[in-house]
């Protein structure tokens, strides 16, 4: 197959010319080679217009060769997968690949949306906040939503396989350019566990296209040797085609691995969660564009990318290329272009003179260097055809004389490097402005993060290698390894300074682009300044500069420069915006990585789950847990099963698994003091072996949890929380200890998952336990209510608490989770003669309602404080402070007309209370809600409907009749004491 590629150079590059690859772009059949990216293949085929800008739908061409690409964004269909918003510069060429530009109607060559460009004066920055007011926003909403976005979500099933992995290492090196390779070599030779991450498929970074010498040998020779050594070092792991998208606290980094995304039957993406002792960032730099008139035309590219396309892919950006620069690096592009036989009309340098080395080389080569000059404008429809060059005036603030037009079909521009500091800043790193680079560079980090090479502002190869070696060796040493520095040759000269001119003076600022994707121009920044949006963060949001796919990689520094110039400030005074994760796009599938359907929020299972499942349990989700709601027998209705279970506890014995109850051990000499500050109740006076019920409040005095605390020893407590709040309260207690009272000597440890809890309750509960082998005396005088005992039961170590959520004699037995099923089965066998029943959570909720016990979250809401649930007397007796006490002293919290917890009974037996029903105050035709029913059920024990509710002035209204309103019907109910069953508590002792 003959590949006709008009801009493919006859030789060179790292492509395989013996392996042509067919693909299509916007309906046009094309051919590239193995080793190409989609972008390089498009350039080779002379495809100029690859996309349209978001706002004005201006034609756009390829700008770069890497992750900073903003224009060449396609929907890519490989036959296995269709993915929107893919950067052509990062997409490897595959056989049969189909690329489509999506934000163009009807197509990329003729787009009706271009009318917006011809009327651009009507759509300045922030126009959407000022325009769409009349007649209403909704009048425009459909059109705006249709116009929003740059791609369409894929339809149908996603064939990609997603995985998540965790990885720990001593030294993590991000970037495998010269600095990264040097760092990995130094750290790897020390014996440290090293992970090297590179977003390209091949290690080497700029060495792959910039060449040079290292230690007197070609850079390619050194690169190949370094890559081979690392690949053969057992303690070094290499991840290619992997990009680090975020850097978080404690040296946790998130990386997306696409190394298996091509070639396989099913694409694979992996999300790595990496934890490193030391991190070395060798992330390089991003070349910045120049700002001048119509600087967005197809054919205008970053100079370093033009050089890369020539050397790595053997592709010419054009047949006659003008180079525009403010630094020495772009001269290397000019030399490479000349060596490739590509015409060079001129090098336009905003400085009066380049450094001696490159100036002498340019003179030797006979290149036309136009010093003290800038490109001010361009012409061309589907691509640049001419550039206008003007000479700067003495102060550099204007162009003197007439511009000179040069014919060309490509323009390679370079505004100097900007270190890639996104990950560094996310790690908490500070930045400082380097005047010689006109860019921000790292300046100290609060985490164990080092930066080396171009990412640190070092631009010469020798300096890059030296910094990489030093950073890798130092990171290994800080991990406890004896690092051996590699003897790298240092054979380079410092690069010339970067000129400060990035924005060509003069011209029509509405045609000077700063953000190519979002069509943000200098005029938009001027408008923002006129409207006093002079904070860089306000500028970003008002103009949307740096908020597109680019995420500021090629737009932020120029925006800062323009803003500084317009407000007579320096760039450091303007500052930078916040660098937030993610640095590069991450698909939602990769983020979820298998956590879909039933794995989206994996259910936690009870310790004896298998027994429950095999014995008729009807499971439901209660918070994060799958728990039996009830145990239905053959032909039995759900409510009948619940009633049977309730009556079994009231008349015989019931067995309930309460494993999800939170269990937090608090141990240390200050444990009593700490818990006394946490609970409304006084926990310091609790004696060892005793248990006390208590409330926990937020700082605002609102009830957030209740439960019991048992004192195991003078310095050891066991705190029980409600099932739904176990994890939350653990974190909340840690926060109070670590942030507010770090001087208190104690440790907190959640043991919820370690201990299963089996609760046996009912008048025959004591009889059941007493019949088992145990060293615990279960008699009422030896083991009274609200005490705890430890020992062995049926040969298993246990903690037994005499607490009750049902009102009957009850024993909560905590035992190792692995022994739960065997113990459960033993109890079911032992209690068979006594009428034992397994009971579900719905029966437990009815039992507690009959007893009037509070259920936080059901009988409380976000306004319920401790007074509202009857804790006023307890608070009055407590002399010490506790969380929320100050808030309870506010007049509003002590109001007598607050909603307070009461019991409710319908006057008519046929009426039934339901949770959520309102308690209505009627005054003539007017009526309002005085509260609502919080819990309700038809009690099988009392054979009537009962409920709890929050009612205004409820404590003083017992005996009153209130109107209950629910779903259009009303009936009368009486306000009663919330304890419906055994008000004296006589049954608690069995």
Radius of gyration: 37 Å
Within CATH, the superfamily of the domain at 161-285 and 419-478 carries the name: FAD/NAD(P)-binding domain
Strand content: 25-35%
General form: elongated
Query: Which whole number gives the mean pLDDT?
Result: 92
Count of DSSP helices?
26
CATH architecture of the domain at 161-285 and 419-478: 3-Layer(bba) Sandwich
Q: Which structural class best describes the helix and strand composition?
A: alpha+beta
Largest sheet: 7 strands, mixed
Number of strands: 50
**What is the CA–CA distance across the termini?**
92 Å
Give the helix level as a range of percent. Answer: 10-25%
The level-1 CATH class of the domain at 161-285 and 419-478: Alpha Beta
Low-pLDDT runs of 5+ residues are 489-494
What is the third-level CATH name, the topology of the domain at 161-285 and 419-478? FAD/NAD(P)-binding domain
Write structural notes for this entry.
- The structure is a single chain.
- The chain is α+β, with helices and mostly antiparallel strands and 990 residues long.
- Among the domains are: 155 residues, 2Fe-2S iron-sulphur cluster binding domain, sarcosine oxidase, alpha subunit, N-terminal domain (Ubiquitin-like (UB roll)); 185 residues, FAD/NAD(P)-binding domain (3-Layer(bba) Sandwich), CATH 3.50.50.60; 127 residues, FAD/NAD(P)-binding domain (3-Layer(bba) Sandwich); 79 residues, Orthogonal Bundle (Arc Repressor Mutant, subunit A); 95 residues, Aminomethyltransferase beta-barrel domains (Elongation Factor Tu (Ef-tu), domain 3), CATH 2.40.30.
- Helix content is 23%, strand content 29%.
- The strands form 13 sheets. Strands 8, 9, 12, 13, 14, 15 and 28 form a seven-stranded mixed β-sheet that branches. The chain has a six-stranded mixed β-sheet with strand order 41-42-43-40-34-44, with helices on both faces. A six-stranded antiparallel β-barrel has the order 45-48-47-46-49-50.
- The chain is elongated, with a radius of gyration of 37 Å.
- It starts with 15 loop residues before the first strand and ends in a 14-residue tail after the last strand.
């Amino acid at each position: 197959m003959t590949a006709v590629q008009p801009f493919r150079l006859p030789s060179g590059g790292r492509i395989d010319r013996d392996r042509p690859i067919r693909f299509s772009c916007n309906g046009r059949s094309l051919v590239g080679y193995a080793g190409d990216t989609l972008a390089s293949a498009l350039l080779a085929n002379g495809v100029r217009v690859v996309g349209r800008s978001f706002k004005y739908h201006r034609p756009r061409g390829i700008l770069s060769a890497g992750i900073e690409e903003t224009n060449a964004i396609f929907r890519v269909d490989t036959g296995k997968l269709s993915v929107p918003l893919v950067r052509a510069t990062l997409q490897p060429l595959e056989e049969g690949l189909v690329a489509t530009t999506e934000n163009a109607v009807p197509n990329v060559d003729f787009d009706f949306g271009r009318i917006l460009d011809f009327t651009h004066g009507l759509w300045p920055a922030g126009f959407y906040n000022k325009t769409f007011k009349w007649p209403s926003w909704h009048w425009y909403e459909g059109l705006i939503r249709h116009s929003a976005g740059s791609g369409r979500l894929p339809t149908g099933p996603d064939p990609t396989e997603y995985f998540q992995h965790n990885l720990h290492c001593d030294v993590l090196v991000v970037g495998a350019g010269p600095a990264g390779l040097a760092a990995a070599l130094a750290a790897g030779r020390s014996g440290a566990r090293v992970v090297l991450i590179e977003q390209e498929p091949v290690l080497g970074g700029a060495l792959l296209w910039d060449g040079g010498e290292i230690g007197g040998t070609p850079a390619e020779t050194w690169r190949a040797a370094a890559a081979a050594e690392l690949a053969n070092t057992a303690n070094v792991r290499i991840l290619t085609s992997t990009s680090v998208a975020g850097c978080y606290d404690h040296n946790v980094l998130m990386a997306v691995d696409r190394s298996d995304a091509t070639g396989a039957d099913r694409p694979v993406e992996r999300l790595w969660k990496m934890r490193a002792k030391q991190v070395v960032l060798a992330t390089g730099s991003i070349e910045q564009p120049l700002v001048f008139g119509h600087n967005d035309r197809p054919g205008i590219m970053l100079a370093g990318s033009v050089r890369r396309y020539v050397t790595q892919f053997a592709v010419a950006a054009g047949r006659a290329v003008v180079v525009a620069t403010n630094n020495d690096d772009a001269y290397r592009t000019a030399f490479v272009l000349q060596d490739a036989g590509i015409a060079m009309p001129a090098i336009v340098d905003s400085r009066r003179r380049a450094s001696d080395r490159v100036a002498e080389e340019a003179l030797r080569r006979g290149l036309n260097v136009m010093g003290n000059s800038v490109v001010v404008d361009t012409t061309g429809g589907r691509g640049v055809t001419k550039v206008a060059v003007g000479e700067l005036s003495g102060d550099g603030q204007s162009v003197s004389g007439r511009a000179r037009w040069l014919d060309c079909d490509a323009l390679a521009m370079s505004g100097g490097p900007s270190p890639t500091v996104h990950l560094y800043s996310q790690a908490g790193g500070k930045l400082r402005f380097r005047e010689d680079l006109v860019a921000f560079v790292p300046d100290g980090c609060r985490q164990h993060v080092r930066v080396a090479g171009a990412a640190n502002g070092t631009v010469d190869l020798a300096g890059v290698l030296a910094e990489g070696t030093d950073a890798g060796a130092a990171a290994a040493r800080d991990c406890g390894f004896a690092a051996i520095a590699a003897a790298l040759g240092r054979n380079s000269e410092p690069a010339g300074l970067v000129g400060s001119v990035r924005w060509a003076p003069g011209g029509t600022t509405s045609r000077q682009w700063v953000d190519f994707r979002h069509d943000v121009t200098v005029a938009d920044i001027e408008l923002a300044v006129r409207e006093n949006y002079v904070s860089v963060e306000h500028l970003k949001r008002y103009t949307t500069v740096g908020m597109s796919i680019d995420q500021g990689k090629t737009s932020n520094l120029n925006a800062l420069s323009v803003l500084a110039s317009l407000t007579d400030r320096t760039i450091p005074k303007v500052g930078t915006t916040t660098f937030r994760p993610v640095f590069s796009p991450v698909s939602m599938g990769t983020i979820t990585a298998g956590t879909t359907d039933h794995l989206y929020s994996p259910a936690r299972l009870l310790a004896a789950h298998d027994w429950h499942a095999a014995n008729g349990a009807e499971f439901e989700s209660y918070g994060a847990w799958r728990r039996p709601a009830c145990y239905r027998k053959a032909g039995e209705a759900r409510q009948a099963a619940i009633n049977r279970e309730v009556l079994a506890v009231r008349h015989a014995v019931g067995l309930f698994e309460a494993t999800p109850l939170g269990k937090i051990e608090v141990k240390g000499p200050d444990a009593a003091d700490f818990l006394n500050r946490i609970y409304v109740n006084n926990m310091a006076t609790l004696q060892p072996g005793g248990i006390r019920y208590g409330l926990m409040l937020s700082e605002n005095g609102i009830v957030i949890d209740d439960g019991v605390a048992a004192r195991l020893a003078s310095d050891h407590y066991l705190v029980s929380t409600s099932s739904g709040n176990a994890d939350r309260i653990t974190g909340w207690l840690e926060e109070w200890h670590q942030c507010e009272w770090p001087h208190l000597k104690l440790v907190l440890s959640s043991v919820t998952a370690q201990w299963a809890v089996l609760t046996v309750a009912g008048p025959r509960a004591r009889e059941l336990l007493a019949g088992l082998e145990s060293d615990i005396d279960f008699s009422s005088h030896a083991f009274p209510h609200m005490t705890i005992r430890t020992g062995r039961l049926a040969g298993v170590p246990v903690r037994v608490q005499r607490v009750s959520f049902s009102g009957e004699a009850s024993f909560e037995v905590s035992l190792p989770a692995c022994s739960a099923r065997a113990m459960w089965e033993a109890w079911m066998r032992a209690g068979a003669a006594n009428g034992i029943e397994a009971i579900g959570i719905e029966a437990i909720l009815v039992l507690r309602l009959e007893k009037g016990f509070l259920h936080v979250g059901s009988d409380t809401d976000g306004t319920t404080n401790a007074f509202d649930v009857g804790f006023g007397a307890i608070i009055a007796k407590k002399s010490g402070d506790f969380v929320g006490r100050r808030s309870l002293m506010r007049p509003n919290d002590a109001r007598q007309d607050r909603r307070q917890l009461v019991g409710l009974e319908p006057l008519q037996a046929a009426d039934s209370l339901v949770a959520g029903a309102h308690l209505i105050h009627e005054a003539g035709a007017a009526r309002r809600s005085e509260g609502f029913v919080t819990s309700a059920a038809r009690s099988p024990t009392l054979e009537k409907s009962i409920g709890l509710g929050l009612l205004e002035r409820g404590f003083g209204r017992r005996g009153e009749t209130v109107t209950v309103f629910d779903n259009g019907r009303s009936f009368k109910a009486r306000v009663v004491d919330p304890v419906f069953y055994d008000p004296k508590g006589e049954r608690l002792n069995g």
